[in-house]
Amino acid sequence: MFSRKAGQTATAEADDHEQRPIWAGDGSDQPPTTHRRRRTRRVLLCSVVMLMSLLGLLAGAVFVVSERLAGQVHRYPNVFSNLEKDARPPATRALTFLFVGTDSLSEHPTTGSEAAAKGQIPGGGRSDVIMLAQVNADRRGATVVSIPRDGWVPVPGHGFNKINAAFAFGGPSLLVQTVESVTHIRVDHFGVIDFAGFQAMTDAVGGIDVNVARPTSFGALSFDAGLNHLDGEHALAYVRQRHGLPRGDLDRVQRQQNALRALLSRVMSNGMLSDPLRTYELLNAITRSVSVDDTLTNSGLRTLAMDLRRVSGDDVTFMTAPVAGLGREGAQSVVYLDADRSAQLWRAFSSGTVRDYLTKYPGDTLPWSPP
Predict the structure, then answer these.
(1) Per the confidence metrics, is the pTM higher than 0.85?
(2) What values do phi and psi take at 130, rounded to 5?
(3) Labelling 274: which of 39, 47, 85, 149 has CA 20 to 30 A away?
């Protein structure tokens, strides 16, 4: 019995010796698993620190690049500061821009930072394109309404005149005031670009695809019926042409919208925004060509870019202000806007119910294949 206990004790001692941890008696007071855990934590911590540093460097680089690009944008001063605040339409949660396109036929830029460096002044002539663009309050869609440049409207301080004359008489401020008085829509920001800038933007995206209703030509350049791929030179001719089109300048307005729609589709659908180099080239072309009001800061431009990431070409509705007919005022050929239909449109535009308006007047949208 004693020997059995002794054997048991010996066996227990042997088992105890075999099961003793290898760290026992080596001067360490922690098991190896604890060391491994600590090493793992240190590696993870170092990895996190390195990742945070890289992200910080990347964010810093993005900020520097965005500041450089936004810093290229020429700001037009005092667009809104001289407007009587109480006389302006009320602000809404939507964001409304007044975009102007000019066609000086100059070989040199007339808008943007390069034009400013050459002493050009945006607003020195009549505007060829006038578009009121509103981004929805939820920033998931937009509506663009073109106002014919020859629209016969009251221009504050100048009586009735063509709406584009307001730009020549008083620059952006008077044009904003005129558009607000006609539409009762508050303009939040103003932007102007010349046709040369549009050409540069078109080339930056690799050209645009537009549908044409029937064959036409502009000078030595021609457009086939159906789908046409246009580089910057051809795109510029496309938006300039009005002679030979059934409705003249009204059809040219639709071509300008069609080109803008194609440009948006090109940017959003061919992976351009996922290519840093091509994105930079596009933004470089835009920021060097455009002039905006001085209330649109660099941070405001970045916020706007972030907001518009969710908007695709299919989310933008293109329309033209309703026209009652064409006529003459003295020696001028003019466009008479339809007062009743226009009032309905601007109310829908202001209240965010444009779709309801288009249910009633479906023909007011931009067709898939303008003339």
Answers:
(1) no
(2) -130, 115
(3) 47
- Beta pairing class for 189-194 and 95-102: parallel
Three-state secondary structure readout of 173-198: HHHHHHHHHHHCCCCCEEEEEEHHHH
Is residue 158 within 8 Å of residue 165, measured between CB atoms? yes
Tokens of 345: 């449109």
Q: How many CB atoms lie within 10 A of CB 127?
A: 26
- pLDDT tens digit sequence for 117-174: 444 444 456 688 999 999 998 888 899 999 999 999 999 999 999 999 999 899 999 9
CB 99 within 8 A of CB 145: no
Helices (DSSP H) in the chain: which residue ranges? Answer: 2-19, 32-72, 112-117, 165-183, 195-204, 232-240, 249-269, 276-289, 298-307, 339-351, 354-360
Q: Which numeric CATH code is attached to 78-364?
A: 3.40.630.190
CA distances from 350 to 94, 111, 183, 340 (A): 9, 29, 9, 16
Task: Answer for the pair 205, 282: CB distance below 8 angstroms, yes or no.
Answer: yes
At 5 the pLDDT is: 46
Q: How many CA atoms lie less than 13 Å away from 162 in the CB half-sphere?
A: 23
